[in-house]
Amino acid sequence: MLDRRGFLQVTAAAGGGLLLGAWLEPALASAPPTLGNDSFTPNAFIRIAGDGTVTIIAKNPEIGQGVKTSLPMTIAEELDVRWEDVQIEQGDLNPAYGGQVAGGSTGTPTNWEPLRRAGAAGRQMLVAAAAATWGVAESECTTRDGRVHHAASNRSLGYGELAARAATLTAPDLRTVALKPPAEYRIIGKPIGSVDTPRIVRGEPIFGIDVTLPGMRYAAFEKCPVFGGKVADANLDAIRAMPGVRAAFVVDGGTNLSGLLGGVAIVADSWWEAQQARKQLDVTWVSGGTELQGSAVFAQQASALMAGTPQRTLRQDGDVPAALAGAHRTVTADYHYPFLAHATLEPMNCTAWFHDGKMELWAPTQNPGSGRQLVATTLGIAPDDVIVHLVRAGGGFGRRLANDYMVEAAWIARQVGEPVKLLWSREDDTRHDFYRPAGWHRLTGAVSAAGDVTAWHQHFISFGEGERFAQGASMSATEFPALFVPNFRLDASVMPSGVPTGFLRAPGSNGLAFVSQSFIDELAHAAGRDPVQMRLALLGPPRLAMDGERAVYDGGRMRAVLEAVAQRSGWGRAMPTGRGMGVAFHFSHRGYFAEVVDASVAADGAVTVHKVWVAGDIGPIIINPSNAVNQVEGSVIDGLSEMFAQEITVTNGQVDQQHFGDFPLLRLTESPREIDVHFVKSDSPVTGLGEPALPPVIPALCNAIFAATGRRIRSLPLSQHDLFPAS
Amino acid sequence: MPVSFTVNGRATTVDVAPEMPLLWVLRDTLDLKGTKFGCGLAQCGACTVHLDGSPVRSCSTPVSAAEGKRVTTIEGLSDDGSHPLQEAWVEVDVAQCGYCQAGQIMSAAALLAEHPKPTDEQIDAAMNGNLCRCATYLRIRSAIHKAAGQ
After folding, report:
1. What is the pLDDT of residue A26?
2. Pick among B47, B93, B105 to test the A interface (most A CBs inside 10 A)
């Protein structure tokens, strides 16, 4: 990745660095490019060759959220080069890059400043090199489009010409480098196409599933359909005799559902042959003890928990019983949302090769660092002996934060001693996910005669044990409308389960927004108040909601997006019979989003979403407006997809669904034809966009259905409801 | 059993089981990785290729069905990425993860071959079998119209 000199320069930068962090370990520096002696590597993210070629490293995993384009844009901006002159290279897992995670919409907020500083440091060193060459003051030099200019003498030098000299300079303290004023941006804020799209449209092999190594074999892995089960016996000899099969063996596995689980590995000359052999597999499984669990059992347990005393109270403000007793009107309702799978279009896969005492992996993962640790721990090798190449993932949505497929590939590859590509089938992918946990809520709210929300009592039930929520099942004590309703109580109860759960795009929020924003709508109608006016009153005058010393929610920013979306959608206009508009807002992942849905319900109960309006506030600058609009449109349709007909159910410890036939995604004809995307610019930090636009669309559509039909949707998916209008 | 066909204009003979799906022959026997595996059940369209010019789901098409026929994959849609759909896809910046897009483009190419100026209804009919998990449907529609000069 870096030559020896580049390596030393990285260290120099790291001396005062904000993020450049530790040493670049030579053992991990894979495939070093041949760099001439005239090249310049101011830090781990930038290489400038003597011929002027500028290469910028994309550090984070690319899963479709656009960071392979947007993060290098911020470096290129401050380096002051032309975007079309830059080559982008995907970085492998390497401590020199700092954190490398695609999760929580954190890529933008955590990298926005450090990466611009890395670019500015490179620019500053090139200016210093030019000034020294000309014997002039650095302050007399300017940069533009990959050249340093000295206007007074009408001289200029390209970055390539300056590279050799710049490489002899000491990198500046990143904290001291000057950043451009936003008014001078020429790349940030411009709509720029995703860097890989030209390769995607030509069908070039850039995804994890496309990785090919010399002598590579293909693996299929059959795990116990009941979570946590192990292999007692399997007809391995028969499988080994099948065409193309090279090896078939039992993997014992452990008990960690996020790690290596028990199963049978089949390694063959082609994946199709491995799958064909798999059809003949006859396995006797040993139960993991979860075969009595199922969705019906969980629902019964949730009912029992709801009827009993809550296990915990997460928040208590004011006096809820008194407020309820003195209320003008009260409303009580139960809400429920199901387990969901991620259903990335590219099934889980990983290519692994154990050689020279090292495990080398090509992994479409969102979380390569934790994958390396899992592989090292499970295989009993040092983390430094696990090399991880980041490859483009065909969708993530949180699924690839877990690295089960990585450790499976590593284990199988070490056993066979050859490069192996492990690929899951669609059915494997659907039935061995880390599911968005189902949740149950009971809410009681009160409104005053003036139509204000005076009390809110919510009991949340999901999975976990004791004080610990299962992964993806937590609820914050500051979840809205906490801190906005004077008399507020949030209780929680959990039940254990053997179903692996995890993070699905906008985790927590993708269920919680449905509940709270639907119930606010119920309170608005109980109060006889317009749903937008009710929400504006609930938010109150612009203010920061404080949880003790900590600001947790900016009511002013939410007001602004709510007012914007109401205005743009023409909220309040008359709608034809069977058609209605619904509104909702939600704060998550540092982003404030309000959305309006225009939907109709036909005589046969079919729901059509005509248009969705989105107003969002993710700070003062949208780094790449083209990708930003694409992400919002995708988030909206993703949310609709979840709510229309998606549900994972469990029977006797196994997932019932298998593929897109029983876990459907919205298709082109089912998606809204129009989505209006508007960004409200605020004087607040620049934040991410992979997730926060998703949650509001779900309650906004439910509220639109209520406006159209008078039917209140209190459980998802919609396909469970007979929306045939009441006669 | 040898099966002979042309792939992107080149005569090809493969010696594989006749029931082996065309998808896996393309990807793993012929090393043409542009055609994608999404479901193996003809539900998602990621594996769409042209067989004698018609779109088929290669995951559910046995290679024997290609005997004597012309197979066109995303790699063969143009020599240099200059098919109007490829250019429109780049210009409109359609892709997010990009995994489905080869299949989307192949379905769209078959549509434009039949209807050079497709209506929205014709787009609906041709494209509804192609899932996009990132839900770039609005841009897919827009890029098809652009490629058609509409």
Report:
1. 28
2. B93
